[in-house]
């Protein structure tokens, strides 16, 4: 039977989909096996030791048979000593060899698998974080996460356990047949008569079971995503009093999972019963026939015992194949999903820190020239239509407009998260393509609506803007961002842990941390995505002051929700349905009586 896993993988409990084993899928997996290359010496040694230990395992029935025969005064095996003592001594020596070999085989297999898996994990992660935004908009975080955790753990299990076990069982199977044939061809012939029928039946049955377990896995994934969505949006669930709705939704899918799994278990149970009945039943029949041969003095009693032990090896290795094969199928599926990521085209960004130094400086001139854009996931919906504007270095450009008009999309294009289908984005008069992606993003900072803080300390969170910053630089940035005072008020000051397991910061405090982060980055172009939720007036004043400090001397693109904050902007672009329909200063735009800006201003004035 398949052994317990020997590694750090966390695959148990996560049922992974299996894939068809075809020449193509095996070819794919072979691509992952190239990760074994640096460790091939150890891997080959482990394989050899595995082979050796399996082979040595095959010697035991011979020892036992020979012991019985010798006790009865017969010397049936000319390769072994003729005395009980001699056989025992040799058997113990082989046992000791087996112990040593087994130790190294496990150690080396795990060693190779863990190291190569760490390499695959690293590459997959590197690939993931350099993939374009479009890749992420089409996938769920949970699904991607499971590729790195569950899928790779399955591959790991296969490398450390399944492959080894398959080889071991194969050696026992083939070796068993050969040794049995040496004892009695007639008996082996009898055994081989029943085997092929059982194998064909087992394969067909296995396919059927696979289909059912796939259904269960799909349903399970559905129920997992309910949990994930509900928990990550728990405040929404509570606010809408939708606990009952979510509970029913989850209860129903989970019941379906159970129903399908039970249906699967029924057939799996039948499958196991079949194996037990047929495999062991036929072994029993064959041994019965062996007894007849002993009574006719064709073989000795010791040889029959030896044969029976080999037959048991054969039975157990046959019994273990379905599970091992299923594991292999899962690993093939898992590898294909991992390879899918590894095969994606990443963005040309560097993942080595030393390549991140700015090579081409941008002073801060930015222009959009007749930009047309549709998201790759929805190519038929034009989100930006002929958008043109210019921001000279140091200017403040505000973008206003109703929800869905394309403001955040414009920011995404500046950051090169996406690329326009037509038109050009120019930095200092040169097209974006003339710069490396790293150079552009290194010289732009964004203060987003929802500031994301990592689960580390405040110091680390500010340092995210410039990883090489000294503590003095970080404190200086925090001071300029009006954040130093509130940070110092915490008992652990800059070492205070924030995020899920730490202090919860208020919206205004988070924004000031984001501003400090941006100050530290010292960008030429700044994108401010103004928070829609309003802060209390003191907090608002502190944030506004910090923003003024941040904006001074840089090109700022302000996505504004409150028109009161952008009166001083050099130009205001008014967007509607992906088009810039008005542009000018606050005064200019207010003069246009029928203008959208004036209308929106009026609305906000009424609300305030
Ligand atoms: N990743 C995406 N894939 C496909 N369509 C998107 C994507 N992101 C936004 N859109 C669509 O693009 C349009 C413009 O969205 P955008 O977020 O730029 O608007 P916005 O003006 O910033 O709105 P808001 O003020 O509500 O933030 C919307 O119709 C939106 O549905």
From TrEMBL:
Its main location: membrane. Residues 44-330 form the ABC transmembrane type-1 domain. Keywords: ATP-binding, Membrane, Nucleotide-binding, Transmembrane, Transmembrane helix. Gene3D superfamilies: ABC transporter type 1, transmembrane domain, P-loop containing nucleotide triphosphate hydrolases. The keyword Transmembrane helix applies. It is a multi-pass membrane protein. Residues 366-602 form the ABC transporter domain. The chain crosses the membrane at residues 43-68, 88-112, 166-183, 189-209, 271-295. CDD domains: ABC_6TM_bac_exporter_ABCB8_10_like, ABC_MTABC3_MDL1_MDL2. It is found in: Cell membrane. This is ABC transporter transmembrane domain-containing protein.
